[in-house]
Amino acid sequence: MTAVAFLFSELCSGLKSRAARKGRRVHVDEPGSGAGGMLFLGWLWPLLKYGLKNKLVADDLRSSLPRPTAIYRLRTNNLDLFAADFWGGAAVHFLGAMFTRILGAATLLAQPFIINGIMSILQSNQHRSVGAWLVVSMLFNLFQVHGDQLFVQLATRVRSFLIHNVALRSFGASPPEGADWEAASGKVLVRLSQDSAAVSGAVIMSGMIVPNVLVVGVGSYVLFKYINLAFLGPLIAVVVCLFAPMLLGGPLSRSQRKLLEAAESRIQIIKNLLSEIRIIRFSNMQQTAAQLATQSRQREIDAATTFRGVLTFVVVIAFCGVALLPWLSFDYTVLFTSLSMIQIMIMPLLSILQMLPEFFSAFVSWKRIRDYVAKGTDVVKPADTKCRSNEDTDGLLLYLNKFTAGWALDSTFLNNVHLSDLLVVSGAPGCGKSSFLKSLLGEARVTGTTRMGAKHLTYCDQVPWFIPEMTIMENILFGKEFKSELYAEVVAACCLDYDFPTLPGGDETKLASNGSPLSGGQRKRVALARTLYDEAGELFLLDDILSGLDAKTRTQLAVNVFGPNGYLQKRRAAAILCCTQGKVPV
């Protein structure tokens, strides 16, 4: 077998080299995952080859099998949960995996015959061989392992497809209603984690249903041949498994939906409490916060009462059959063969009963993902959002006419805005300043005429974000070429030249994802410096960049960036500044 594995590995290596010489792409996504690699133990050959070494390195375990199996390449950014190309390939994958799993089910059915042959040898002086059954069992075990691997790969493909669609829905052209991103984050998190995992788990379990039914059916026939009417036991269990969904479907679906909604609420509450932990401690509200978290968890537990009750009922019913022992007398051959067959049938019967709630849960999760993604497909196209040339806009960088924007079809935050000259957007928190900038970036539903004279937009978000484990300079450059003059000018404009000497590593200080160890004002100014470090920028969209700064720094930054001799004036660029009322840099 090792020699066959070696020859097969070398053959695949030669095919891969020939394909590479012809300029074709060769993928090695999952070592040893091809059909030949599974059947001929290609995945085991590297271990045998390097088994005499004192240690193994990663390069030793790289397979030469050039066959991609588990990775699904997403070729489009369109929301389509029923993409024919994906589900067509997944169906072929499913049929192939199911065929190997059915062959693998024969492993269980071969065991009683092996035991029967062994008992016959022990009870008689006849020389009978059970070697053929052992070989068959070994081959079917290989098929079963291959089938398990194929279903895991298929589940990975399905989950990546669902996550891809949920991500497009969440961050695409159809934001959540009311622009409540904080509330929507909990729903997105549940769909990306629990819902997608439930659907992918159902894919894996679907590969167990058919083999288990075959094992129960064949096992019932064998038991009938050995112990007559005793086969009715597993047959009744199968019938119960068929009719149980009709009784449990409704309560389980409603309970699972309530449970997932309660989980979303709890995750959002815990997230808010953790983000405001300092304020809670300073306000001596620890007991109130703990009570709020406890109540959210209690609501989640109460919502799962029906679901867990059904699970308890299923477990009780499944184990009742164990107590029903036969009182007939058997000879040793019949006894051990029947016990072996019953033992083989117990796990498939239990798994069928236990998988019913999981299938209902997966069905509810699938509907939740389907409904969530479907909301992102009814995008309202703007009347005129095509970027025009500078001549068409009469020299204006931005022109809006009858501009209306909203997060949903029946909800708007801007109505019939006419705009040809704009400097500052000021207002109280929550009045729609950030939403206005996001609508200019195409993240909201807009109607009206939008003429963009600026060919290059640069946006600075209200919440600073940073690439972890990268220095301040690397976060400012953001992959752009380092230019010393431009870098020095941006650092000075953002008043960072006074801060760098006070830091242990200067601008080589590494940052965490939240900007630590910088203060709140320093994080704001580093994020602004990253935005300004763009020579091609013509229009800068700045969202509340002055909040969190002391009066002196705020005034100096406003002069450096927006003053007559400021950074924007020197670059002949313009900016739309959104700031809180009372902090306008005038």
Automatic annotation (TrEMBL):
Q: Which residues cross the membrane?
A: 197-223, 229-248, 307-328
Q: Which GO terms describe its cellular component?
A: membrane
Q: Keyword Transport on this protein? A: yes
Q: Which of UniProt's keywords are assigned here?
A: ATP-binding, Membrane, Nucleotide-binding, Transmembrane, Transmembrane helix, Transport
Quote one Gene Ontology molecular function term. ABC-type transporter activity
Instruction: Pinpoint the ABC transmembrane type-1 domain residues.
Output: 95-361
Q: Does the keyword Membrane apply?
A: yes
| Any single Pfam family the record assigns to this protein | ABC_tran
Please give the name of this protein.
Answer: Multidrug resistance-associated protein 7
Traced from the root, the source organism's taxonomic lineage reads: Eukaryota, Fungi, Dikarya, Ascomycota, Pezizomycotina
